[in-house]
Amino acid sequence: QVQLVESGGGSVQAGGSLRLSCETSGYAYSGYWMGWFRQAPGKEREEVARIRSAGSTNYADSVKGRFTISRDNPENTLWLQMNSLKIEDTAMYYCAAEGPECIGGYCYWGQGTQVTVSS
Fold first, then answer.
1. Strands (DSSP E) along 1-119, which ranges?
2. pLDDT, tens only, 9-50
């Protein structure tokens, strides 16, 4: 059974930092693409960052230079380091996995962790 469990969210002032973690189990983690998504109230879900199995990454323009996605394959863990946080980064953050059995993109999702940035 595939499981993704996020942690590390919380409340922080603008300009601060948070590090999100996603612990995974139940599948061949190292061969999967992994991503972080976020969704704010009233807005569509947005892909924030992606890391491929070989380690290459992509970021949404809104977080480039501030967020860093990384993975530890032996530990089956994904991270998102978020620096210089802005109020508009406030959202529920989700990790997701995409493997060969997934049709049309990510098919495994965590339950989410809330990030709230205040002035």
1. 3-7, 10-13, 18-25, 33-39, 46-51, 57-59, 67-72, 77-82, 91-98, 108-109, 113-118
2. 999 999 999 999 999 998 888 789 999 999 999 999 999 999
Nearest to 48 by CA among 102, 2, 115: 115
Q: Report the distance separating Cα 85 and Cα 4, nearest Å.
A: 24
Residue 37: partners with Cβ closer than 8 Å, 6 or more residues away? 45, 46, 47, 48, 93, 94, 95, 96
* SS3 label, residue 102: coil
Mean pLDDT of 77-95: 97
pLDDT at position 85, please?
98
Kindly state the tokens that stand for 69: 């996605």
Q: Is 37 helix (H, G, I), strand (E, B) or coil?
A: strand
List the strands of the sheet with 67-72, edge to edge.
3-7, 18-25, 77-82, 67-72
